[in-house]
Amino acid sequence: MELSSSSGPVSMPVIGFGTAADNNDGATMISAVLESIKLGYRHFDTASAYGSEQALGEAIAEALRLGLIASRDDLFITSKLWPSEAHAHLVLPSLQKSLRTLQLEYLDLYLIHWPITVTPGKREFPFDKQDLMPMDFKSVWAAMEECQRLGLTKSIGVSNFSCKKLENLLSFATIPPSVNQVEMNPVWQQKKLTEFCKANGIIVTAFSPLGAKGSSWGTNDVMDNEVLKEIAKTHGKTVAQVCLRWVYEQGAVPIVKSYNKERLKENLQIFDWELSEDDYDKIGQIKQHRMMPKEELVSAHGPYKSVEELWDGEL
Fold first, then answer.
1. What is the pLDDT of residue 315?
2. Binding-site residues for substrate
């Protein structure tokens, strides 16, 4: 995939390694990242909120020392701005902190993590309603654009933005967002959003393409789906491979996490086969529901009557 940037097109590998986990044990993360680099992964997704930036940075340094990659330029690294830093004056310092933690001079992509702002210093999740405030999109995005102009990130984008939020952002952005990272899998297909993004030149990256089974925020509904199991059996593939292939065929980039060597290898084996029209008919009939209802993102007290009010009824 090619992203636009101030220094020309930036190549983004079409599958990424995700680093969000309930317990980010540093040694386990470093080992998994090194193994994934050996297998061919070059795209790594982190965030200040994940607690994985330090381990990822150490793994990159070790990969360079071992000669697994020739230079840092061989990798594509994404991080994200947390809502408590989504204030114009905190955007640049937050990116600079992430770079220090990662031991890097620049990111390939920096994303606004959520389309909301939280009181500075408040990092709790779910968000407390009394700490929420509407984002000043113009000033925050202007600060993101400045980060790109300074060369601290090659591209900028957003995460968890609805069509309505993107439309607003596009109406004033000097540098349009290159990416929107959202929950996307066969059980939450995001058809309207992906069509909007495609029409506006925004690449979709898909978090939890397998439903994040086993995590506190995840669901078993993707990996245990009988339709997907049937399709996997027909092709002699795993359910995970079917999901990742489906995301890839939508023109989106799956961000997938595994610390298991065999599954890491299997997750890359999605490029030499295709889903059939019959597969698409079956996937199209899967009942749709998101992994994490919007109401679970915000704790139950504060100035907003509902999370719908905060997100303009759309997310």
1. 44
2. 113
